[in-house]
Design a protein that fits this description.
Elements: E1 3-5, E2 11-13, H1 24-30, H2 32-40, H3 49-59, H4 63-140, H5 145-171
Antiparallel strand pairs: 1-2
């Protein structure tokens, strides 16, 4: 484990050491046994510390470019978040519209169902009244054709309302 630079500019031995050395050399001199062992013996991956140090210099790897790359990547996420926020606003706006439409459709559905039910009740009441009036007209010898025409007109109107309600309800599934 090599000497590492701390945030305050001092050096420490490894990850857990104290940040008390003013330079890398003083850190390495303070830990000669550990440091010399690292230089002499290969790591489990087969390279010595010197070989790793040479590669580091050769490829000019440092913490700063990595930090810049990470900051750049974080900025990309901010861009993604702002795009998602814009879409979220649209989705919420549209969701409100859909909920309003759903409420309107539910009210429409109830109104259509009620109209169909009311028309059916009116038709039943008209039929009962027709039976009484038709019977009375026969007994009195009065022409019942006008009653029959009105009855057919009422039945047709009830049928039209029920068909219209059926068509509207079948097109709108809630």
């Amino acid at each position: 484990m090599p000497c590492k630079q701390c945030k305050d500019g001092k050096y420490k031995w490894g990850n857990t050491g104290e940040c008390k050395y003013d330079s890398k050399e003083s850190c390495e001199k303070a830990n000669p046994k550990k440091y010399s062992e690292m230089k002499q013996y290969p790591t489990p991956l087969g390279k010595t510390y010197e070989e790793y140090e040479k590669e580091l210099k050769e490829f000019n790897l440092s913490a700063e470019p990595k930090l810049e790359k990470v900051q750049f990547a974080i900025q990309d996420y901010d861009k993604f978040l702002s795009q998602i926020d814009a879409l979220d606003k649209i989705a919420k706006r549209d969701a409100k519209k859909v909920l309003k439409l759903a409420d309107d459709m539910a009210a429409f559905y109830r109104t259509v169902r009620q109209a169909s039910f009311d028309a059916s009740q009116i038709g039943k009441n008209a039929d009962k009244q027709f039976e009484k009036d038709f019977k009375a007209a026969k007994e009195l010898g009065v022409d019942a054709k006008p009653f029959q025409q009105k009855r057919r007109a009422i039945q047709q109107a009830v049928s039209d309302v029920e068909k219209a309600a059926e068509i509207m309800i079948s097109k709108v599934k809630i």
